[in-house]
């Protein structure tokens, strides 16, 4: 202990060698556990009454509502209902716009309609219950001008790129099936189209 005090007083006065001033204190695992434990206890105490304060705030809100007149309480409930309705309308508009962008993007031959949803500038796209979604074709045209690689080179966009394409191919005929097709006078391709696959 005396050594520590002497080193402290020397470092405070500016005296002592650089080695003594530059030494860092090392802690044992036990000392570190004690320090961490103290810090945790302090943090718990700091925020320990959070749940109590939260419950008191809820009780205060209920008390305030109870003290309100019937008209005031109805006004608060109306305001909450209007806020919920606006939120629902915004979610509906967003879903309708997103759906319209995907459909129009596929119709216009954009390779990835999902990418178009993310990349398109929505500032000119509007939705109303009366007229639906407006401004999507113009916004998609502007997107294709800015990013021409989104346009498919031939045919329409593949709306289901993960689909199994082998299911649409005619089955391969066995030698016996080829002989049957020959005896019937039917081309092998036509015979294979009419076979039932398990």
Notes on the structure:
With 198 residues, the chain is mostly helical. Among the domains are: 70-150, no CATH class; 168-198, no CATH class. It contains nine helices and two strands. It has helices at residues 2-13, 18-22, 29-47, 50-67, 70-107, 113-119, 136-146, 175-184, 188-193; strands at residues 126-128, 132-134. Strands 1-2 form a two-stranded antiparallel ribbon. A hairpin with a 3-residue loop joins strand 1 and strand 2. Helix 5 packs across helix 6.
Summarize the structure.
The protein is mainly alpha-helical and 198 residues long. The chain has 9 helices and 2 strands. The relative contact order is 0.05.
Write the layout of secondary structure elements.
Elements: H1 2-13, H2 18-22, H3 29-47, H4 50-67, H5 70-107, H6 113-119, E1 126-128, E2 132-134, H7 136-146, H8 175-184, H9 188-193
Antiparallel strand pairs: 1-2
